[in-house]
Request: fold
Amino acid sequence: VLGGGRASDASAAPSANGAGEFGYVSTDPTKYDASLTAEASFDGQRSVKECFCGESRHKSIWLQFYSRLHRELSADPSFSGEWVHQVCATSYPVIFKVITIDPVDDSFMMHSDCPAGLLAMVAVCAQSAALQHMQAGSPRVPDSARQPMTFFRPPPQVTESDVLQRPSGKWNFTARVVTEEGPPAGDFFGEVSVADCISHCERVPRCQSFAHGPNGCHLKARCVSQDDQVVPPGEQGDDYRTYFREVCDNVEEGVLQAQATAKLLASRLGLRGAKIWTSDLKRARQTAEIYARELGCEVVVEPRLREPSLGAFEGMTKSQIYSQYAALFERLAKLPQEERLHAAYFEGLETPAQTSARVEETARAVFLQECGTSNGSDAPLPTTTTTPAVLFVTHSKVLEAVLAKVFGKFYEGVETTPCAFFHWRYAESSPELGDLHSIACNDHLVEQ
Reply:
């Protein structure tokens, strides 16, 4: 209930408090436990302006929430529009970060000086849940009205050993929740296992990833990868992880990104009609085919452009690798940068230096072929300057390895935006980078 002033038996309609401000009070605090009663009383003794404008770390969150709530309620006093679900979807991460709930002794703790703001968020989400229950029983409500937050019945239990390796494909996770989670696709509150979250996500067509933490899992309609930026330690969301499919199903978004990148490559580097050399892995080949249609290019599949070999790590998840070989990674972290590039600590593991050498050898072979020469691999490169440009389509780990070789620095998790590319002018014994580009294709326009 949204109302003004102290606790009262006011109706559900919002009312003004002071100079057009809105605050949260419980209509009947005696129906709640002692903690809620005390908080409701405390809210009645302080101004809403003090709560929403306090100099705390959450200041901007409260101001944004308060501003939108005031605007939406002014336009829709019925408190029943689609905006209720949307505001709740942006509020629940704040609620779960700032409130710690102990289900054993039925108590909770607020890590904020703004209980009025938190309780207002709770009220909005309670209204969202109530509206969805009513909508679920009405066939006249369109599906689009139920999408922002969706509640499901719990699926069958899944064993923990089946969490990250499943018939539907591999799952992976980030160290902390990603900063750009994308639109919500459903939520499950409480103690929910990772296995159950994966089952939920696999049952929802829109779900591509999910955030999992101590207060539940939150399904997201966005493809995520290890290249995505995560929140810093100590910030909101650092106790959550983002889990994602290793092979993303969001084909439509990927197609748009590839088409946009092809247009930029054509206008910026003049690659129309150039030959495309692509890794033989499915993701790269599909991208190359989209480029080819846009640029009018021939596609050549080249296995030497594929991901680095992981040796004994093949088939293992990140959590398994780091838990079983913790001592190894502690030792590697102490090695000098140059030594990390060449450290082969497992049989069959391809080092960054080896990966870069493999790609460099491929570039040399392509150069010789495009020049129409049959010289051996040890022959000097032709000095011609009329060689047509070619386009290589490969993977982020290959880009990391090439950059590591060029700059003499070990890279782990180089941040690349979707469809990132760089222009590499190749010269024998001197791999020189020129015109380094990184394109953020989410809006298909921005170049960074």
Q: What stands out?
A: Confidence is low (pLDDT under 50) at residues 1-33, 52-59, 138-163, 430-448.
